[in-house]
Design a protein that fits this description.
50% helix, alpha/beta, two-stranded parallel ribbon, four-stranded mixed beta sheet, 580 residues, globular
Length: 580
Amino acid sequence: MWVERHNSIDLLTKQSRSSNGSNVFLNTVESNTSIQVLSLLCLACSRELVVLDDDQFLTSGKPLSRDELKKFSRQLLLLCIRLIQTNVSAQTNQFLSRAIKLLHQIHERDCRLHFCEPSHWLVLEVDPIATVNEFKERARQVNQANDLFPSQMVFHPEDNLTMDDDVVMGTSNTQNDRFVSQRFQKILTILRSLPFVVPFEARVKMFRILVDFNEQGGYYHNAITVRRDHLYDDAYDKLAAAPSETIKEQLSVRFLTTEGVDESGIGPGVVREFLQDVIREAFDPQKGLFVTTDQHVLYPNPNSLYLPHSLSHFEFIGRLIGKVLLEKQLVDIPLSRFFLNHVLCKPNSLSDLLSRDAEMHKNLMYILNCDPAEVESLYLFFSVSRDRFGVSQSIDLKPNGASIQVTAENRVEYVYQMAHYLLNVELRAQQLAFIKGLSDLVPIHWLRMFSPEELQMLISGTQQDINVDDLEQNVVYNGYTVDSPVIRYFWTTVREMTGVQRKQLLRFITSSDRAPLLGFAHLNPKICIHKSIGVDNNREWLPTSATCMHILKLPDYPNQQMTTQKILYAISQARGFQLT
């Protein structure tokens, strides 16, 4: 088998460079036993990757060395794309199914370990600009968003892909087939099976085309009123039981101060602040619904099931995340990778346990690799003890597990049963409730174009500091010009700010402290710096903002010192809309 694997890699490399193009390449694959060898190699590598921990993967050279795996996966990727694009016969179905599954496994491992260059997964044959344009054209021709990107167009590694699915071979059964070009069928098939060959930015644009296409428009006229000091509870009472179509519409929110006084803000800016604050409170570990890991990422609290109506709360929180995705808003909520895998309907592996409990992962790997004679001395059984508010509860990992001791012979089963329980079983009810709420607003198959890391960016943006050059290039002015002295003072102040202060400034202007995912050129409306004239032309007034329109109202300060002083004070003290 190991001789055949090298021959398979050489075959892929040689044929991918064929001067006669893909037809000769595909004919060669179909006319001899090479496809069978490749298929078996994909199956063997896939099964090996399932049981390999990340550390073992990096050090063992199995199933292939890293250099071999990079070379093999690249050529395998090109082959799969060419098979999809040329409508080859069903003889290659089993191979294509196995190859796509293996490519997903390697790509997911690469997302964690970064052993491939970013360009490794991109394919020149898939033009991102043309793909987005085709998506836009298609959106103008269909009646429903699900006809634009049907749910059956999505593949993930758990699918038993037989290729008799019409979609995989480039056909479709949607009622608007008359609008579907062969090219668009291929785009959908690639997005379904190998979405990572399309650049992340292009997939974000396609996702937002779907969101815009499905937009309800108009205002929800039954405005909600929430108290600042009871924000989450009021939001839950008003929105948790509301129809999903109501949540999709634009909300109208009115804040009450802690004194019961109406705040003065109105419009989208208030709604953005409302969503930011209520989500921040919902995920706060002090509330008891979520907990944090040592890496400061969040996942559902195992004990949350004992809280009143907890599943209803998880469903509501899923709706909130769906709402910010529809609004193209970013929220700083770092979620655990294993939890994001569940959202995307992707399987978790032993390595994903690192994203929940690194210490448990370390202990399980020790059990897996220690001397066989030591295993029984650990005196472990196929059960797990959980603390439920001070009461110890024993849970069997398999029938009668509490009486089955872990031995050298069954330790592999024990390790994977324990990981399966922690990653897939213990939190299943909370995860399903969250997914139900999210899918009420955003179809999950739209999100499955993304990896867990990419979904995190779709929710929260990047961890990078705000790009001041990008911000400056995409600001417009009213009453000032780029050469106005106070504008020069302003940009000097922004460049001298800390990262935290820049986030405060952005929140002061837009009600969100997260930079747009695709850059400030995609912020709508653009930030406007407006000349503010105080009473009696008083130039010592604080700057104010109209967050609904992204307007910073900046007085014409006479010098750099006053400009910096007033801006820093305003952004550090602003709360709600009383300063606008």
